[in-house]
Queue: 4 jobs
Job 1
Amino acid sequence: MREQFWGPLNTQPTRNSHAQVVDAIGADIIRGRHAQGTALPRDEEMASRFGVSRTVLREAIKTLTAKGLLVARSRVGTKVRPRDDWNMFDADVLRWHLEGGTERAFYADLSEMRLAIEPYAAGLAAERASGEAILAMRRTVERMISAPDRRSFAVADIELHRQITKASGNVFMHSVSALIEAALLSSFWISSPAESPIVQSEVAEDHGRIVGAIAARDVPGAEAAMRHVILVGRDRIFRAL
């Protein structure tokens, strides 16, 4: 089994019956136990399974509907919506993917989204980053170089990407990164090169090139360096999977 590290997702508050039902049905949908396009069992059966009232069950169905996983229709029942309709920015939907064991397609989609956003964010950072922000980035790269284990490397890795999107000065880019932070941390954890000092040094140097281009106000260089880091990381994830 692949080792996992979900960071902030490791700590879940005690959940009430509504949250427990939402969690169980949502996880079953993500794992394919309720296939896309199929109807859920009848309310009576579901309520009996979870030991809750039909009122609690219906509230859970409403919550999952809001997350894009279900649709309720009269005389048809409650059906699982196609995967394309799921809200992948929802924290629970992301968590269910990560906890259930993610496939290559999940990380391919994540990499493509990152390629659409992060290189441009790095270019903006090259135009807008303050000297203080650049100094903080350099310190984070040093943490990547000296990281003693996978956890330390992954945490420093995501911190650097967070610093870069923040330095872009674009609140939407920074917010998107925050929304998918759990998925990013998962991908950085899987692709972490910390077990190989040589590869760790190379990956840290690649990230250092992003910061160097930002410090030099080299917009094309920052974009290219970020694109390279994302593609190399994607390939390491595919090999790990």
Job 2
Amino acid sequence: MNFSIAEENYIKAIWRLQQTDSNVTTNELSAELQTKPASVTDMLKRLKEKKLLHYEPYYGVKLNAEGKKLALNIVRRHRLWEFFLVEKLKIEWDAVHAIAEELEHVSSNELIERLDHFLGHPKADPHGDPIPDSSGRMEAANHISLHQLKEQQQAIVTGVGDQASGLLEMLRQKKIGIGTKLEIKQRFLFDSSLEIKIRNQPLITLSEQLAKNIFVSLT
């Protein structure tokens, strides 16, 4: 069955919201997609007719097995395209999201499988988010926020919490990306900011908010 771009955007938005709340409200979807609640209600009725979700007015919405399968397929396409854009076309990681938002709707399974093979079956996208395989399985992230580290602990950057282009651009300017090795040199009690050391670079200071949006694994 083929789905419109709008339908796929709704399915992906519901899946994303379900990561923190299993039952998604119409108002949450309206805010996420920046559209009117009445339009959301109409779309949910259409997606229910296509047997992709459970929906009852005033009780919220939840993807069923078919809806989740479609959502993970869209997420797979999006993250594979992001990997391709960064690794093969050398586009900066803060500029690929919008492009991948368009490419994710190219639904040819043969194309996506060939892309996956061409890229060497990557497990995570350029921002550290896991890429679902062709069956919808993906590895669980096993990391903590940089802000949780103690002084003198060493770690490697494995993910980014907030993928807003402004934050990614800031990290790029500070030469912090996936795979960057760093060490906590000092924690400032005044504002909970961190002083960190990256090899062959001067010491830099990160705000508490920024440190909480950088995920790392201990080395």
Job 3
Amino acid sequence: MNVAIIAAAGKGTRMAGARPKQFLEVAGTPIIFHTLKPFEQCDRIQQIIAVLPAEEAAEFTSLAQQAGLHKLAQVVAGGETRAESVARGLKAIGANKVEIVAIHDGVRPFVTPEEISSTVEAAKITGAAILVAPLTDTIKEIQGKNIVRTLSRANLRSALTPQCFRYDLLQKAYLRADLKDPGITDDSILVERTGASVTAVEGSSQNIKITTPQDLAMAEILLQA
């Protein structure tokens, strides 16, 4: 069995709204439901665990069922950091026989079922794989206000989600992690620290993370398109 953990426990302070950003509506539907839909449609994923703010968790399962999201098995209250929230999602898996765990940001609604499948399949072969996208901007390294050098884009990628790992490998990585560290912004870095290799799977730059009002406006345009 392959399980998706949707990390959606953030408060969304950069959006400056009354509700967490994952519950803001795009095209009349909360972002979190747009995010869950491709995992519901992906035949490589058998079960979904959503990690949400504690105050939102109680009623979410019934809302998801009404939205046709039948793979949602559990809703877990998140922690203070992303790492702590994902760790709680991992703990919720329990003793189930799981091969691959796919971790995805709750505010990335434009991932496709095909991208999810490709990343899961790569992780089955290598043990760890993440979705990435090419950089389009020229990247400068700076010290203070001075440019030190220009980095070649050829070997650089933006890290996206889902990030997929063999269950035992991810468990090992999280046992070593400082779950209170706010600097752990993705799961791949923890797996990399174990010495394991992580495969890059090319994805689309449209798989944006909605963090600002500008991102929300872009999401509306992408959905209309």
Job 4
Amino acid sequence: MSEHIRADRADRVLVLSFARPDKKNAITLAMYAEAARDEAIGAVLFRGDGTMFSAGNDLLDFAKVAGAGKVPENAPRFIDAIAAFPKPVIAAVQGRAVGIGTTMLMHCDHVLLAEDALLTAPFVGLGLVPEAGSSLLLTARLGHARAMAMFALGEAIDAQTALAAGIANRLVPADALDTEALAAAQAFAALPAQAFAETKRLMRDGAALATRIAEENAAFGERLRSAETAKIMAARMGAIGAKG
């Protein structure tokens, strides 16, 4: 696995940990190819090391390609994999979940949030557009106005709001999050695999979702190639450099 994502086995559960606590578990492009390779498991559990689930995509990665002629093809692979994954996907979220850290939750079958969880999806301020089908899925959960506030204004929703919106199954104390999430993943892994996969397929409009993800990917790539986004990324990197 990548040095930034750790894979552990717990019976038939593959536990994938975002393991960049020094970078607030920002997801690098190299992570995308790792998440769905192992088919010999009954369920996947995503979690993050440290006090934060994920700070989203590493802006340094995006800054490197912003304004370039070609966007790396591996960037959307993680989303494509998780959106089409037929087995149970569980997430255990503590602290902040930013960007992809939030939008990936729309593709999870069971989500546990620590009571301090805070979800954000601040794409427009970075010169980008929503990804992972979130322009469809997050809007369906929250409604247009609240989803737009997240996408455009960078507004956060707390754990209670996420629970009420149906983004999460339940809230748990942070110190019990890993234990309860693993128990849930093991329960899902014990289910009849084919019946689960068929139920998951029937519950989703896979064709519509794939179409929306493809549209978002195309728009996201166009934005990364744009002068507007390159300027924003350069300013962000300059600000980060000044702080360092």
